Amino acid sequence: DPIKGITAGAIGVLLSMVGMDPSTGELRYTFGNIYLMAGISFVTAMIGLFGVSEALTQFRNAGTKSPKQNLDRIIPNWATFLKYLPLSIRSSLLGVFIGALPGTGGDVAALLAYDQAKRTVRHPSRPFGTGAYEGIVAPETANKGAIGGAFIPMLTLGIPGDAVTAIIIGALYIHGLKPGPMLMIETPHLFWMIVSCLSIASVALMVLGLVSVKPFARIIEIPKEIIMPVVIILSVIGTYAIQNSVVDIFYMIGFGIIGYFLRLYGYATGPMVLGLILGPMLDANYRRAMQGAENQLLPFLEGFVTSPISLFLTLAIVFLIVSQTSFYRRWRGLE
């Protein structure tokens, strides 16, 4: 539902504004609480919205038996491989593009790839949300593509593509290296070593996945009354380990409850996470655009169509909005 998706995304953007204003230092939506001054970590929100809310949802169906997994064949046959190859390529390229955008990463790439698959696949193997192959292929290939994509701005511009590459940049600076154009000029061998390690890691990940898929698949057969409390405990441990903060645990539980009620009333949690992640970027760039337009509305709106890049992005946004209308979906045969 586009309205529900926009509503959830708007809530995420609103929550991303909590804390200290990066431009003026003013406190926003803290209500005098010192723990809100640092803002809300989107990783904490993701653990709550995706992990805890899913566990709470599964508790409603605690009496049902877990399905037995058919593990006779792990590697798909050539017909299945070729059938989903176009979707894999599209999602991988989308993942590389999203990963190359600073501040996004694999989480955003996976969510957008899943949404793109739901929009474009006319005849999925089964409805999305019930185990459709397309719903697994798209986000997983995009997630893997975003890993390499995040290294593009890091190696060429010295700008981290996600949190992991930010840590790598810090490690390179500690060793006296300069991520960015100078890295390829002064130490070209290190650049190609990083590229080679990424290639080796992709092969190693495939081997590890094929070896461990059977043990991991058996986890699904564990009764929900056992596995879901373990999920909640691991969520608490993971949340605390981010910043060693007990307050983050309460945030995570709160987002888990919010995510549970969002699912209960048909609201998607993905747009809310996207709003949390992209909200600070939206805020910063809006401020920059308004300052360039001298806080006047007409010059600000002209900026959407004056350059080829902004015009292309504006038309893309308009197309995305139009593509959600019932008339367009009936015309394309998606309804």
Description:
The chain has helices at 2-16, 42-59, 78-100, 106-120, 133-156, 163-174, 181-186, 188-219, 224-243, 246-264, 270-292, 297-302, 308-322, 326-331, and strands at 19-20, 27-28. It contains 14 helices and 2 strands. A hairpin with a 6-residue loop joins strand 1 (19-20) and strand 2 (27-28). It is globular and about 65 Å long. The chain has 2 domains: 1-66 and 223-279, no CATH class; 75-221, no CATH class. Strands 1-2 form a two-stranded antiparallel ribbon. With 335 residues, the chain is mainly alpha-helical.
Which shape, going by the Cα principal axes?
A: globular
Spell the H/E element sequence.
HEEHHHHHHHHHHHHH
Q: Major β-sheet, in short?
A: 2 strands, antiparallel
Question: What is the domain total for the residues?
Answer: 2
Low-pLDDT sequence parts? none
Q: Roughly what is the average pLDDT, rounded to an integer?
A: 80
Q: How far apart, in Å, are the first and last alpha carbons?
A: 13 Å
**Beta fraction:** under 5%
Tally of DSSP β-strands: 2
Q: Output the structural class.
A: mainly alpha
Total count of helical runs of at least 4 residues: 14
